[in-house]
Amino acid sequence: MTVERWTDQMLDGLASSVSEMRESMGEMREGMSEMRESMSEMRESVSEMRESVSEMREGMSEMRESVSEVKDSVDGLRITVQALLQVAAQSQRDMEVVKQEIEIAKQERELLKKRQAESDERFNVLLEEIRYLIRRNEEG
């Protein structure tokens, strides 16, 4: 084994290398610290994103519930509308029957008026005949 002697130049190179290594180590520590900060910020961002996703899920769930309620309401309205349409159709048929009955009643009333007028006319004729007979009987 041979022992080598360090020269000033070698010691200066070593000192320079050690200095550079210390500087590099400091830069690495700063980089690591920045990476830790970035990781912490990323964790916070991920946490915030999770909260946002959770809120969105809740919102979607509420929206689905609302849509379901709206569907139920629409179905109820559809049933109500159908029932009202049936009632309206029945009412229209009933109105037609009533109109026909009113028309028949008008015709019957006109017929009764005509018969009443004929009866009144016959009564007046009979009354005239009775008066004539009474006068004749009084005269004779």
Average pLDDT, rounded to a whole number, is 92
Low-confidence stretches: none
Shape: rod-shaped
Fraction of residues in helices? over 70%
Tally of helical runs: 1
**H and E order:** H
Q: Characterize the main sheet.
A: none
The number of strands is: 0
Multimerization state: single chain
Quote the beta fraction: under 5%
Rg from C-alpha positions?
58 Å
Distance between the termini: 194 Å
Structural class: mainly alpha
What's the arrangement of secondary structure elements?
Blueprint: H1 8-139
Structure commentary:
With 140 residues, the chain is mostly helical. The protein is built from 1 helix and no strands. It is rod-shaped. The N and C termini lie far apart (194 Å).
Characteristic key phrases:
mainly alpha; 1 helix; rod-shaped; 140 residues; single chain
